[in-house]
Design a protein that fits this description.
CATH architecture of the largest domain: 3-Layer(aba) Sandwich
Strand order of the largest sheet: 4-3-2-5-6-9-7
Largest sheet: 7 strands, mixed
Shape: elongated
Distance between the termini: 95 Å
Helix content: 25-40%
Structural class: alpha/beta
Strand content: 15-25%
Number of strands: 9
Number of helices: 11
CATH class of the largest domain: Alpha Beta
CATH topology of the largest domain: Rossmann fold
CATH superfamily of the largest domain: Vaccinia Virus protein VP39
């Protein structure tokens, strides 16, 4: 017989293309992947939203994309469909590994699955290429992960990350009540941009808060010279008593806050939330110099 279709031909696309992937909801049901509160899991199922995040991430630019907490693989699918040459997906929940394995078989040699805790994953193992990081981060470890990645920021080309909205506000703030040590550290090393908010209804289960996608692009060099430990020390002291003028807030850092502020060219009456990142760097340099002179 000629001209007929072989059994099962409807399951494959024309021109030799593989059949469409099943909906994520079907994958979750088939593998019994009920989100776990203890792991901070909120699965992102909307393919249009995943595509929007991935377009912002420009996944065809870095040689390697690191995805943290892929779960059933919504963002992972979108990354691979958008042309990412190599995706390394770090997943702590072993229940998700079978679903991710199906994606790895679908995209041979492009998806590597690593079972483990992202906080313990060393991005330096992804030699020799610079990497992009894309993730719908668990709320309970998002800030800690970002700080870890900032420690190795010279290896990173970009980070497109979803945080709880209030954390995204802290990362990108340039003053006011949201501005703090996290703002200074992130903006010292990266340009930081809030892209768009994501409704709780986009997740299963819906979280109790709005999420925000943020894009961070590491600077070629830090915004201004400063020792990282000194910068952390001055921001911690300044924001630890943020309602006080710096001449009082910095007393826990040095017995001579007025001399420190004068050396940095900063008004003693200023408050922490009014200082720019560059001014905090100046304060860090002045404090480091003061400590050095005291040690002689």
């Amino acid at each position: 017989m000629t001209g007929g279709s072989a059994p099962g031909a409807a399951d494959t696309a024309e021109a030799g293309r593989p059949a469409p992937l099943p909906p994520l909801s079907a994958v979750i049901a088939r593998h019994g992947l009920q989100p776990r509160r203890a792991l901070g899991q909120h699965f992102l199922l909307d393919p249009s939203l995943c595509g929007r995040i991935v377009r912002a991430a420009q996944p065809d630019t870095p040689a390697i994309i690191l995805e943290v907490g892929p779960g059933p693989g919504g963002l992972t699918r979108a990354l691979l469909d958008a042309g990412a040459a190599r995706v390394v997906a770090v997943e702590k929940d072993r229940r998700c590994l079978a679903a991710l394995g199906e994606l790895a078989a679908r995209y041979p040699d492009r998806l590597e699955i690593v079972e483990g805790d992202a906080l313990a994953f060393d991005i330096a193992t992804l030699e020799p290429a610079r990497i992009g990081i894309v993730a719908n981060l668990p709320y309970n470890v998002g800030t800690r992960l970002l700080l870890c990645w900032l420690e190795g920021v010279e290896r990173i080309e970009s980070m497109t990350l979803m945080f709880q909205k209030e954390v995204a506000a802290r990362i990108t703030a340039t003053g006011g009540r949201d501005y703090g040590g996290l703002s200074v550290r992130a903006q010292w090393l990266c340009t930081c941009e809030r892209l768009f908010d994501v409704s709780p209804r986009a997740f299963v289960p819906p979280p109790g808060v709005v999420s925000t996608v943020v894009r961070l692009v590491p600077r070629a060099t830090p915004l201004a010279p400063a020792d990282p430990d000194a910068l952390d020390a001055v921001t911690r002291a300044a924001f630890g008593q943020r309602r006080k003028m710096l001449r009082r807030a910095l007393r826990g850092l040095t017995p001579e806050p007025l001399a420190l502020l004068q050396s940095a060219g900063i008004s003693p009456e200023a408050r922490a939330e009014a200082l720019s990142v560059a001014e905090f760097c100046a304060l860090a340099r002045a404090w480091a110099a003061m400590r050095h002179s005291e040690a002689l």
